[in-house]
Structure formats: structure tokens, C-alpha cells
Specification:
The structure holds two protein chains of two kinds.
Chain A (H helix, E strand, L loop, with lengths): L1 H5 L6 H12 L5 H15 L5 H12 L5 H39 L1 H4 L4 H25 L7 H16 L3 H15 L9 H4 L3
Chain B lengths: L2 H14 L4 H13 L6 H13 L7 H23 L5 H11 L3 H29 L3 H15 L5 H20 L1
Helix pairs in contact in B: 1-2, 1-4, 3-4, 7-8
The chains are: A mainly alpha, B mainly alpha.
Chain lengths: 196, 174
């Protein structure tokens, strides 16, 4: 990551913690977290180009951990070195971890009540909204007539129909891309534009 | 089941399935429920928590850890499932060295395109689970409207729409 280190944006550990803590408040699973992270890193603070975040997320999907864990490690390391990985991960996990453990302690009271049903009927659809927004924003560079969008559509359909392991599907997409999509995409991202 | 066994089971299953949530779930159900470590209701409750709490879905494993070994179990399981994520750092370092090769650029383009497809597939699947009635649909549309039309941030849009949904559920239940 030598090239990246040269252009590493200045960010304090406290700022890194704040970004990932906010992201960790996202509902809707990893994509909900990604949506908030994208808003913080790409839209508001312009620390990363969206294409770079999408690449990190794609590589993160191939890691044997939660995808967002790998993204937190990658972004934390890139922005603040090794300590950044620890700070980013802890910040991202705290909101969910506390909620999960508190609700587990309350198991006796909640297991047979309607509270979870209420949460399920309200928070999940609300989170779905930001999940769709995130998918649209991050997928935006692909929304043009190209082989890339064809790849995305085929992958989406296969995942919905065959329920194949997503990591396997991504690897197939990668290897097919190495054969059919050789070279950078036509629309260069800000970071790529500065490279040789 | 001892604390050490719990960590070993969760670490191994997570590693073997590449973090694939449903595959881990199936394996854990077999190991924990069928072997009598947890009741089915406890197991399903823990899984449900992963859906209704913030953060990644796999945080439900903290609930299982807590049920089996208390606070130590909750913390231990979370550490066990996160650690393999550090593999991403050497992978990215390797990627930086070869990212200018055409075949690598093609691989990343294909991987990214497939990831976008995956995101829409996941969003579609969540939609099938979440949009089960009028209130969820209203909440969903409200969250989009708050973000796009009212120009609220994502978190504000989500919380605002959820509060609207809670209000509607409450009114409809009277």
C-alpha cells in the first residue's frame, strides 16, 4: 500500500472513530452500514472516491469475516495505520454489540412480546430505503451501456435464482472480468486519474 | 459447551464459510441446537436480534456467545469472527503491487460489477422480507422521500421513517 500511503488523507483517530461509530448505527446489515460509511467517506468528507470504496467492499466480500469488518480494517489501515484498524472496528461494532447484548439480557421479557415484531416492521423497511440508496449510489458508475452493467445484471439474476454462495459468484465475476474486461473501466475515478 | 469450544466452533465455521451468514447459521444450528447447547427459541431469538439491531448481521453471534458464556462469550465470539478480516491488509498490499496489470484491472472490474449485482440482489431479498404490509411500505417510501426530497442525511432519514412507522403501528393497533 506504498502508493496509498503517500496520498493518505490526514485524519485523527477521533475523527476515524466518529465516522465508523456513525456507520455502525446503520440498520439493515452490512449494506446499511456501508450506506452510512459511503455518506461519510465519499459524500461529506471526500476522503475516498466511491469507486475505491466499492473496490474495498468487493474485496472485503471475499474475506473470511464480515464484509464490513474487512472494509473497516482496510479503511482504518489506509487512513491511520494499524491502530486505525482497531479503532475503526471497535467504533463500528459498539452500537450493534451493545444493543445485541442488552436485548439478549432482556430475553426473558422480550422473547414472547411484540417489541421485536414492532422493530421488525418499522426499522427494517426504513433501513431498506438506505440500502437501496447505497446500492444506487455505489452502482452509479456502472449505469451505462457496457459489459460491466451486463456483468452486474447477470450476477444479480444468478444470485436471486440459484442462491449460490456470494463469494463464489464474485470470484466468477472477477475471473470472467480478467478475461473479458481487461483494462480499466472507461470512466476513470479521481484516484485512477492520477496514476500512470 | 466450554468457552474455548464455543470460540473454536464459531471461528472455524466462520472461516470455512467465508462469512456467508446463512451457511454459518445452518452449521451453528446443527452444532448448538441439535446438540442441546441452546434451545431453538433462544437460537432464533439471537438470530432475530441480528436483524433488528444496528451494525452487521453477524453481530447476532454475540447474543449466542452471551447465552453460552456470558459477557466473556459475547466478547470472545465477536473477536473470533472479526480476526480473519485482517487478511484484507496483505491482500490489499499485494493488490497495490499488481493493480496496473490489465488482467488485474479486468478482475477488479468484474469483481466490482458482480458486487453491484450482489448489492441489488441483497436489497431485493431484504425487500421481500421487510415489505410485508402497508406500514412497512409507507416507512420504506418515507425513508426514500426524507433522503431524496427533504435532503436529510441517511441516518436522519432512516430514524425519521422508523418513528413514523412506529406511530402508524401504534395508531393501527388501538
Amino acid at each position: 500500500m506504498a502508493e496509498v500511503a503517500e496520498t493518505r488523507p490526514r485524519l485523527s483517530l477521533a475523527q476515524l472513530f466518529t465516522i465508523f461509530f456513525k456507520a455502525g448505527c446503520g440498520f439493515g446489515g452490512g449494506l446499511g452500514v456501508l450506506a452510512l460509511l459511503q455518506e461519510q467517506l465519499v459524500t461529506l468528507r471526500r476522503i475516498l472516491p466511491d469507486k475505491e470504496l466499492m473496490t474495498l467492499w468487493s474485496i472485503g466480500r471475499l474475506m473470511p469475516s464480515g464484509t464490513m469488518t474487512a472494509v473497516a480494517f482496510a479503511v482504518g489501515y489506509r487512513l491511520c495505520g494499524f491502530i486505525g484498524t482497531v479503532v475503526a472496528l471497535i467504533a463500528m461494532i459498539i452500537p450493534g454489540f451493545i444493543c445485541v447484548v442488552v436485548l439478549t439480557i432482556a430475553y426473558g421479557y422480550l422473547a414472547h412480546g411484540a417489541v421485536l415484531e414492532y422493530i421488525d416492521a418499522t426499522l427494517l423497511p426504513a433501513a431498506l430505503g438506505i440500502v437501496w440508496i447505497s446500492a444506487i449510489r455505489l452502482g452509479k458508475p456502472l449505469f451505462r451501456v457496457s459489459l460491466d452493467i451486463a456483468f452486474a445484471m447477470v450476477a444479480c439474476l444468478l444470485l436471486l435464482v440459484t442462491h449460490v454462495n456470494p463469494a463464489v459468484m464474485l470470484l466468477i465475476g472477477g475471473f470472467a472480468g480478467a478475461i473479458l474486461l481487461r483494462g480499466p473501466s472507461e470512466k476513470k475515478g479521481p484516484q485512477e486519474g492520477t496514476k500512470r | 459447551m466450554s468457552f474455548g469450544q464455543l470460540l473454536l466452533v464459531i471461528f472455524t465455521y466462520n472461516l470455512l464459510t467465508f462469512g456467508n451468514g446463512s451457511a454459518v447459521l445452518a452449521l451453528l444450528q446443527h452444532r448448538l441446537v441439535d446438540d442441546g447447547v441452546l434451545g431453538l427459541n433462544q437460537f432464533l431469538y439471537a438470530y432475530a436480534l441480528g436483524r433488528v439491531t444496528p451494525g452487521q448481521n453477524n453481530l447476532y453471534l454475540a447474543s449466542i456467545g452471551y447465552m453460552v458464556s456470558g459477557w466473556l462469550g459475547a466478547l470472545g465470539t465477536i473477536v473470533a469472527i472479526q480476526l480473519p478480516g485482517y487478511l484484507v491488509i496483505p491482500v490489499l498490499k499485494g493488490y497495490e503491487r499488481v493493480r496496473h496489470q490489465r488482467s488485474v484491472q479486468g478482475f477488479i472490474r468484474g469483481l466490482t460489477a458482480a458486487s453491484v449485482g450482489l448489492m441489488f440482489a441483497v436489497a431485493f431479498n431484504i425487500g421481500q422480507e421487510a415489505l410485508t404490509g402497508l406500514v412497512p411500505w409507507i416507512v420504506f417510501v418515507a425513508s426514500l422521500a426524507l433522503v431524496f426530497l427533504a435532503k436529510r442525511g441517511l441516518l436522519a432519514g432512516m430514524v425519521g421513517a422508523a418513528i413514523l412507522g412506529l406511530g402508524l403501528k401504534f395508531i393501527l393497533s388501538i
